[in-house]
Amino acid sequence: MEQRVKDAIEKVRPLLQRDGGDVEFAALEGKTVKVRLKGACCGCPMSQMTIKSVVEETIKREVPEIEKVENVM
């Protein structure tokens, strides 16, 4: 399952990189994925919306077993 999550994250990275940001896989804890936002995404007021509407949506579509995606520092 971890590799499928990483593959899903790779699909959203170009979208974030286009705006100067990035995301990386940090951990998989049960059905929760921990990610780390980088670059312009760090501290951006839209970062939580980015996680929910872009990162989490993509991961859940690719790996339906996942229940939640959280940002870690």
Blueprint (SSEs and pairs):
Layout: H1 2-18, E1 21-29, E2 32-39, H2 47-62, E3 68-71
Helix content: 40-55%
Number of domains: 1
Give the name of the CATH superfamily.
Answer: Fe-S cluster assembly (FSCA)
Percent in strands: 25-35%
The CATH topology is: GMP Synthetase, Chain A, domain 3
Order of helices and strands: HEEHE
Task: Summarize the structure in words.
By secondary structure, this protein is of the alpha+beta class. It has a single domain, classed as GMP Synthetase, Chain A, domain 3 (2-Layer Sandwich). It has two helices and three strands. The model has no long low-confidence stretch (mean pLDDT 91).
Q: Quick summary of this structure?
A:
The protein is α+β, with helices and mostly antiparallel strands and 73 residues long. The chain has two helices and three strands, in the order αββαβ.
Question: Keywords for this structure?
Answer:
globular, three-stranded mixed beta sheet, 73 residues, alpha+beta, GMP Synthetase, Chain A, domain 3, single chain
